[in-house]
Amino acid sequence: LTSVVVGVPRSLGFDQTGLAKVREVRLGYMGPFEEKEVVVDVWGNQFTTPGEHPISVTAFCHYRDYAHVLNSERKRLSLRVV
Predict the structure, then answer these.
(1) What single-letter DSSP state applies at residue 11?
(2) Per-residue pLDDT of the chain (82 residues; tens, 9 = 90+)
(3) How far is CA 12 from CA 4, 33, 35, 41, 73, in A?
(4) Quick check: pTM over 0.85?
(5) What distance in Å separates the CA atoms of residue 56 and residue 22, rounded to the nearest whole number?
């Protein structure tokens, strides 16, 4: 089982109001070297300024169910806002 958690700073959000700062996407079972594409909508709010904004993407490998984590990997990325 695999899931991906995306986190954004205070200046962005995953809904139009900008209150949701973390989004979890459950991808299900994935085989070795299998790829899946995840699309997540990101919204700006009154604190959003043009430029680079840091986001974090964490991938989790689960066993038994989504409550049990076997391993995780975090990547910090930069999102450009125009």
Answers:
(1) T
(2) 999 999 999 999 999 998 999 999 999 999 999 999 999 999 998 889 999 999 999 999 999 999 999 999 999 999 999 9
(3) 18, 32, 27, 10, 23
(4) yes
(5) 9
